[in-house]
Amino acid sequence: MGDRIAGPHARISVTLLAGCGISVAVALSASAAPTAPVAEAMSAPGASSAGTNGELPAAASPLDAAAAARFAALALKCLHREYPNHISHTLNGDSDARPPHELTPAFYGCLDWHSDVHGHWLLVRLIRLFPDAPFVTEARAAVARSLTPQNIAGEITYLRGSGRASFERPYGLGWLLRLAAELRRAEDADARSWSATLAPLESEVAARLTSYLPKLYYPIRIGEHDQTAFALALTWDWAAVTGDAHMRDALKDAAQRFYLHDRNCPLAYEPSGEDFLSPCLAEADFMRRVLAPPAFARWLTAFLPQVPRSTASAAAASAWLSPGVVTDRADPKLAHIDGLNLSRAWMLEGVAHGLPRHDPRIPALIAVAQAHAAAALPAVTGEHYEGGHWLGTFAVYLTSQAGLPAAR
User: Which of 22, 71, 220, 263 is in Cβ range 3.0-4.6 Å of 392 for a Cys bridge?
Assistant: First the structure.
């Protein structure tokens, strides 16, 4: 996956004290519309796409050392902060009524398990991109504190407990694999050691997802944690790093069954009030990974026919999808809209990079991606813990172009 930096450093739901809940949002419609054959579905290494050689304008300014330090501080503030804590925890007996650091000893901070996992991803990525930054010493110590053999063994024991088959599936599991992929890409001794330590949990999570996907008959088309498309994209990127052909096959099968024949995604119905992921754009951002650029261009025409082409006016090119409005950043669910704007920005950018290089929809996609980034990045301050415990990850994912390929 691509890296982009600036400068020389190139089931019981329980809230402990405070927390944010998890709910559902809007469903999409899908109907049969023949598109690209499955044989075309794999992105060909030599295919010409807009993303080759970084030719497109970016959705956001490149991540620089100052911004990296701010985002790292957000993760360091919460990585081992146990309370407040929101857990989704199945109790099998009195002995399961324990504090978070005993239940999941590696990932118990940042309000919830998945935020703690992707907080570790944020730090590992920034350590790799800015190895000489002042925050790196503290970041290395924080990651080392979490990723010990004893802690990872405790995580596996928890996952294997009775009634936990769906724990953090698919969002948190996808982020765990993304963390594992980031560690595998790093070249320093610490990262190699952490990767080896995490490997048993990585294998457990990958096995759970490869077992789950064939049994999932319908995709989950919402704008929050249970959404299928975004987690599949995270998992696809992990499979690309590891070379896991079995996982790639499972993901291609899911893409064919769930999304290949979708059309007319009701983007006008988005967002729902508590979304942090776009159902329509997340699906498109996954499918651009699976389909070669010409096939993806045809699929996108049927799926999102409302994307303007270059013949549209400048106003139409930038106004066809407006950023979401955040009314209260101290409310843990309403603050989700900041995350929606960030994730829309990287998804729109990803869709543009998945198209052939001269596709006339690219200017409109990039213009709207830039508008969403501009609306959301100034809000990633940590002023409110409701957003501060997770928005830094979304900002780093966007500004470092974590989801883009280095080359087709």
Answer: 71
Q: Is the CB of residue 120 less than 8 Å from the CB of residue 74?
A: no
- At residue 344, what are phi and psi to the nearest 5 degrees? -60, -40
Cα separation of 126 and 72, whole Å? 7
Take residue 141 and report the two structure tokens written for it.
Answer: 């110590």
Q: Domain 13-399 belongs to what topology?
A: Glycosyltransferase (1.50.10)
Say whether 87 sits in a helix, a strand or coil: strand
Residue 51 and residue 356 in contact, taking contact as beta carbons nearer than 8 Å: no
* Residues 6+ positions from 267 with CB-CB distance below 8 Å: 278, 280, 281, 304, 306, 321
Low-confidence stretches of the chain (pLDDT beneath 70): 1-2, 4-54, 311-312, 314, 406-408
CA distances from 24 to 3, 73, 402 (A): 32, 31, 27
Helices (H) and strands (E) in the chain, counts: 16, 2
What's the rounded Cα separation, in Å, for the pair 348 and 320? Answer: 12
d(CA 378, CA 275): 19
pLDDT (tens digit per residue) in 243-253:
999 999 999 99
DSSP secondary structure string for all residues of 314-348: HHHHHHSSPPPPPS-TTSTTTTHHHHHHHHHHHHH
Q: How many CB atoms lie within 10 A of CB 245?
A: 9
Q: Output the six-digit token pair for 8.
A: 């020389």
Contact 202, 180 (CB under 8 A): yes
Nearest to 36 by CA among 397, 212, 291, 374: 291
| Residue ranges covered by each domain of the chain | 13-399
Going by C-alpha positions, the residue among 217, 93, 215, 115 that lies closest to residue 165 is 215
